[in-house]
Each structure stands twice: as C-alpha cells, then as structure tokens.
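Worked example 4.2. Below are the chains of a multi-component assembly; read each line carefully before continuing.
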Amino acid sequence: MVEEKELVNALQQEEAREAAFRELVSQYKERLYWQIRRMVLDHDDADDVLQNTFIKIYRNIGSFKGESKLHTWMYRIAANESITFLNKKARQKNISWEQVKDGAAKKLESDVYFEGDKIQLLFQKAIASLPEKQQLIFTMKYFDDHTYEELSEILETSVGGLKSSYHIAVKKITEFIKTHNETL
Amino acid sequence: MKKETINPKFKTPEGYFENFEESIFLRIAEEKFPKQTGFTVPKNYFESFDDRILNRATHKKPKVLPLFKKQYLGYVAAIAACTVLLISIFNKQEISSADFNSIDSASISSYIEDGNLDVDIEDVMAILDTDELGSLDFQDEIFSQENLEEYLIQRIDDNDFINEE
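Applying the procedure described above to all two chains together yields the following structure tokens:
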C-alpha cells in the first residue's frame, strides 16, 4: 500500500496523477462507499454520491494543502456530499429531510440490496429518524469505529460536542426501537 | 506486612463519577444494537468501480463555444419574452371569439369518431328529459331511412330480438 504522503505528491503531479488516483480509488472506495451508504441507504444513490465524491477529490487535489490528513479530507468530502445529496433530493421533491429519510428507510423493505432481518431493518429506521448531524456522527462512530479525535478532525466539531451528540443518538435509537419492538 | 495506601495524587476528569452511570447505561444499550447493517452491493460492483470513475474523472469536456455573446443575450431574451406574450394574447382572443356555431359539423363528427367524446346513451338520458328528447330537431339527411337501415344492420344482433321478452 502506497503511503499517504507519496500518494498526495503523485496526485499533485500531472504525469503521475492518473495512476495515483487509481491507487487512491482502490484504497478508499469501499470505506467511503459504506460511509455514504449508511447515510443514503439506497445502493444507486450511494453509487452516485461515491462517484461525486471521487470526482470532487480528483478536481480539488491540486489545492489540497495537507493541513489535514488525506483520508480525513476525503471522509469530510464524502460526508458533505451525502448531506448535500439528501438535501437536494428533499428540495426536488419539495419535502423535508425527515420525509426523504423516512421514505428511504421504508424502501429498504423491498430493496434487493438489503438482506437485513427485522431488527436490522428497525435499526436502520431508527437511525434514519435522527437529525442529519447526529445520524452522521452515529454511523461513523458506531460502524466505522472512528475515534472521537478522528471524527473531530473530519467533521470539524469538538470532541465534547461529538460525545454529547453520540449519546443523544444512542438514547433516541434505543427509545425508537423500544416503542416499535418490545423484544430488543 | 505493609498496607497499600490510596495515592492522593490520582485524579479523575471533572464530572467522571456523576456521568459514570449514564456511560454504563449507554454501553449496555449500544451492545444490544445489531453489528451488521444488512446492506449488500451488486455483483462485481467494487471491481468495476475503478474503471468507471477513472473514465469519468479523466474525461475531458469538449469546449463549448457560446452561440451568442453575453452582451446580446439580454436582447434575445427580451425579444423572446415579447414574442411569447404576443402569441399567447393572440391565441386567447381567437379562442374567446369562437362559438359552437363556428365549428363545422365535420370537425365534430371526426372528434366523436376519434373517440374523444366518451358519452353513452345513459349519459344522454341523464342530461335530457323526455320532453327535451321529443323536441330535438333532427335533420332528415342524417336520420334518413337508408341511414337507419344501415345502422340497424351493423349494430343490432339477431340475439337482441330473440332475448327480448
């Protein structure tokens, strides 16, 4: 695996850019895909957002100054692209963010690319009921196992604020599941 | 034997013990959550992604030459807007001056024959009462003996008469 610093150098040189970008895509596509998919829920939407994320990375790598780590910068772009995508969808359909998320969660019931059981479906519905920032923090912390310090860099939020948001999210999800399923 | 003493130099973060129960509650709640999402991807999705994105990223957009220079666009837009406005006013006047008498019967016939008028005999009966039906002035050339015979031959099935009581 090519070191991040070398990769950035190669990406910023015209003649090495294409090969370096291929390496970058190869290294990060799955991690970024799953981060995005947990936000937008639908595979086709996740594919669109993932492509937009990499296009943005490719077009802006020249101006990347290395003030943050490359992967931190990429996770931030993916997070912003996911939220932008969902907000755009809400605007186009003239509905709220909550309605977009609620609709996407309900669609999972018949989604061929969702093989979760009843509890996993309910869990996704509970996550989808959270406000956008809490949802982002919860999914990135719970599934991707980022530390609060990493998340603080990615989302440019204080560690204290992140902890508080995460705890509120866990409480809300627990409540949601309790009211919809007594067995958990 | 020497007894272990509590080291008074150890400290805890502010509010640690006050928040301890809350933290434990959250850890227990978290442990009950599913560890997997249940999401899957189409076959070979990740394998084919690299080429797709590389093609898209490195694709050079063709240079588009503007059809009009920016300074003229305002005039063009204004002329277009005026044209649309005039056409819509003109059309409105035409429609408002049209009445039933100005439409020739051939147009009405073709309108009905094309299936645009979805009205059956029940609808006609609901609209007109018996007196009005009796007072309708049918033109002889439309309901001539010859036309009626032709209509009956085409539309009336023998069984209609058999089934009649």
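Take a moment to check your reading of the output against the notes. Residues 159-165 of chain B have pLDDT under 50 and may be disordered. Chain B touches chain A at residues 22, 26, 29-30, 32-34, 36-42, 45-46, 49-50, 52-54, 56-58 (CB under 8 Å).
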